[in-house]
Automatic annotation (TrEMBL):
<feature type="region of interest" description="Disordered">
    <location>
        <begin position="310"/>
        <end position="342"/>
    </location>
</feature>
<comment type="similarity">
    <text>Belongs to the ATP-dependent AMP-binding enzyme family.</text>
</comment>
<feature type="compositionally biased region" description="Polar residues">
    <location>
        <begin position="311"/>
        <end position="332"/>
    </location>
</feature>
<keyword id="KW-0436">Ligase</keyword>
<protein>
    <submittedName>
        <fullName>Acetate--CoA ligase</fullName>
        <ecNumber>6.2.1.1</ecNumber>
    </submittedName>
</protein>
<keyword id="KW-0007">Acetylation</keyword>
<dbReference type="InterPro" id="IPR042099">
    <property type="entry name" value="ANL_N_sf"/>
</dbReference>
<feature type="domain" description="AMP-dependent synthetase/ligase">
    <location>
        <begin position="65"/>
        <end position="313"/>
    </location>
</feature>
<dbReference type="InterPro" id="IPR020845">
    <property type="entry name" value="AMP-binding_CS"/>
</dbReference>
<feature type="domain" description="Acetyl-coenzyme A synthetase N-terminal">
    <location>
        <begin position="7"/>
        <end position="59"/>
    </location>
</feature>
<dbReference type="InterPro" id="IPR000873">
    <property type="entry name" value="AMP-dep_synth/lig_dom"/>
</dbReference>
<dbReference type="Pfam" id="PF16177">
    <property type="entry name" value="ACAS_N"/>
</dbReference>
<dbReference type="Pfam" id="PF00501">
    <property type="entry name" value="AMP-binding"/>
</dbReference>
<dbReference type="GO" id="GO:0003987">
    <property type="term" value="F:acetate-CoA ligase activity"/>
</dbReference>
<feature type="compositionally biased region" description="Basic residues">
    <location>
        <begin position="333"/>
        <end position="342"/>
    </location>
</feature>
<dbReference type="InterPro" id="IPR032387">
    <property type="entry name" value="ACAS_N"/>
</dbReference>
């Protein structure tokens, strides 16, 4: 970036709406906005309210159309040592397959989807497929209990849950799908289907008529899907507070304003250089840091990023050796400091 931090602050202070219009115009708008900030219903603000865009198109399609389809979007490192690269073209195909599958299950714009998964590529694919269809995703941290999952499913009114058979933690495979079964067994639920990614190979009971394997549905779907635009104020996701001080509170984020902010801050804070940097955020997608700086911010900017399956509580040659820029949540930073040799 050529602008210093103080210059950016000065520009924003001098013309707030002009500044954010400039940042928003870094995105692709299917229908350009003419209004930046609308305070007519104060204290509720609307950003770019008369514009239309598709969040997934901005994170994937446009990079492919701009000739960057062969650029690696995600370099994923599994906890047992396996790895996988997804180029932007491959990511587009995967997101399209998931979008076609969700549509085939009868989901339509505005429906809610709960994503209860560890840090695997399919979790990011699921988030982007929801964004592509105007579905509202609610990502639930995979370390939360069945009762915590049920609270969030009920509050959001989720029609679909996406999970894995299990997850790897510190060299061992632990079951995850049973927590979904336990959560949904607690009385009537809005959930109609559960899609399960086979990650660990743990024996996983499936409920007939409700449960579906990812590899038997999403992986076999068509890789062609045309993204449709949505209003800038269309809901993108609900993310819940941890609930440590009371009932979890769902925070609703809308599309245009959120993506503008996530893309802008990722770009300037990390001095991102597309095609040159390899970026790594050590957070989990279950938290807002992961939403903004693993999924939406980096991918909107065409970044190449490392995604690591486990919690990096000590440095690893695999992940740290491949990144030129990284960020971490405070809790991860504290744990890494404590685990360092004295």
């Amino acid at each position: 970036m050529t602008d210093t931090s103080s210059a950016l602050y000065d520009r924003a202070a001098a013309d707030r709406e002009g500044f954010w219009a400039e940042q928003a115009n870094r995105l692709h708008w299917h229908r350009p906005f003419t209004r930046v900030l609308d305070w007519d219903d104060a204290p509720f603000a609307e950003w770019f309210a008369d514009g239309k865009l598709n969040v997934a198109y901005n994170c994937v399609d446009r990079h492919v159309l701009d000739g960057h389809g062969e650029r690696v979007a995600i370099h994923w490192e599994g906890e047992p040592g396996d790895s996988r690269d997804l180029t932007y073209a491959e990511l587009l195909a995967e997101v399209s397959r998931a979008a076609n599958t969700f549509t085939g299950l009868g989901l339509t714009a505005g429906d809610r989807v709960a994503i209860y998964m560890p840090m695997v590529p399919e979790a990011i694919v699921a988030m982007l497929a929801c964004a592509r269809l105007g579905l509202v995703h609610s990502v639930v941290f995979a370390g939360f209990s069945a009762s915590a999952l049920r609270q969030r499913v009920d509050d959001a009114g989720a029609r679909l849950v996406i999970t894995t058979d299990g997850q790897w933690r510190r060299g061992s495979a632990a079951p995850l799908k049973p927590a979904v079964d336990e959560a949904l067994a607690e009385g009537d639920s809005t959930v109609e289907h559960v899609i399960v990614v086979r990650r660990t190979g743990i024996d996983t009971p499936m409920v007939s008529g409700r449960d579906l394997w990812w590899h038997e549905t999403v992986s076999l779907a068509s890789p062609e899907h045309e993204a449709q635009p949505f209003d800038a104020e269309h809901p993108l996701f609900i993310l819940y507070t941890s609930g440590t001080t009371g009932k979890p509170k769902g925070i609703l984020h809308t599309s245009g304003g959120y993506l503008t902010q996530a893309a802008y801050t990722h770009n300037v804070v990390f001095d991102h250089r597309p095609g040159q940097d390899v970026y790594w955020c050590t957070a989990d997608i279950g938290w807002v840091t992961g939403h903004s700086y693993i999924v939406y911010g980096p991918l909107a900017n065409g970044a190449t990023e490392v995604v690591y399956e486990d919690t990096p509580t000590s440095p690893t040659n695999t992940a740290t050796g491949r990144s030129s820029k990284s960020t971490a949540s405070p809790s991860i930073t504290r744990r890494r400091r404590w685990s360092a040799p004295s």
